[in-house]
Amino acid sequence: MITFTINGLKASAERGTTILEAARFLGFPIPTLCHMEGLTPYGACRLCIVEIGEGENAKLVTSCTYPVEEGLKVRTASRRVVRARKMILELLLASSPQSKTIQDLAAAHDVRQQRFRQEYEDCILCGLCVRMCKEQMVAGAIGFRGRGEDRSVGTPFDIKSEKCRLCGGCIYVCPVCQLRCTYTEPEKAICGGCANLSPPCIEKDRFNDIMCYMDPCVACEIKENEE
């Protein structure tokens, strides 16, 4: 067993346990976006950052990929951590302001505004869809391509994948696909996710028959209330 300190509390965990796993087991909440049980930790969203060490040697690390170490001192909600998380959420909001998942995370962490230029990107490169396709669906039909600002998710060489079974797993886990309807008028209560008009997913023309995975579906609720 590994002995360490988290938020001033002496704790122990099995060797190989990540800080995120240990913190959640002990009841310390750490927000995540790209992490999902059953999928390999990726550390892309950076929301799960915690502060380890003390004094000038203290640093921020992603808790989903950093294993607990003997004598490690961890702080999950220090001033430095909270400030960094809010900055990350502001950047995510600028990239995908209509994402229900990101909106809820921002609200939960008291982010009331974002100071960056709106980009309205379709993908935040969290890697959930790539890992779901490869690890759970055992298909590997999609993956990352390009580097830097040209990095994106898609099929190799933009060729239609024969391995894709149209299972919808990538849509199910995608935080950007889970859009929140921003309209108050019933006839305009379509965000593109519900009606599958323009889902922000790879190869958009291939998912016309996939059912919406929003829960709850705002447009459906309005329709039921009208009836």
Explain what this protein looks like in three dimensions.
The protein is of the alpha+beta class and 227 residues long. The chain has two domains: 1-121, Roll (Ubiquitin-like (UB roll)), CATH 3.10.20; 128-226, Alpha-Beta Plaits, CATH 3.30.70. It is built from six helices and seven strands; from the N terminus they run ββαβββαααββαα. The chain has helices at 19-26, 79-95, 100-108, 128-136, 169-173, 218-226; strands at 2-6, 9-13, 49-52, 59-62, 73-75, 143-145, 152-154. A hairpin with a 2-residue loop joins β1 (2-6) and β2. The radius of gyration is 20 Å and the shape is globular. The termini are far apart.
Instruction: Estimate the global geometry from the Cα principal axes.
Output: globular
Seen as an oligomer or otherwise, the chain set is single chain
Annotated CATH topology of the largest domain: Ubiquitin-like (UB roll)
Report the structural category.
alpha+beta
**Strand segment count:** 7
CATH architecture of the largest domain: Roll
CATH class of the largest domain: Alpha Beta
Overall average pLDDT = 80
Largest sheet: 5 strands, mixed
Instruction: Please report which band the strand proportion falls in: under 5%, 5-15%, 15-25%, 25-35%, 35-45% or over 45%.
Output: 5-15%
Instruction: Name the poorly predicted regions.
Output: 181-224
Rg computed from alpha carbons, rounded to a whole number of angstroms: 20 Å
How many domains comprise the coordinates? 2
Number of helices: 6
Residues in helices, as a percent range = 25-40%
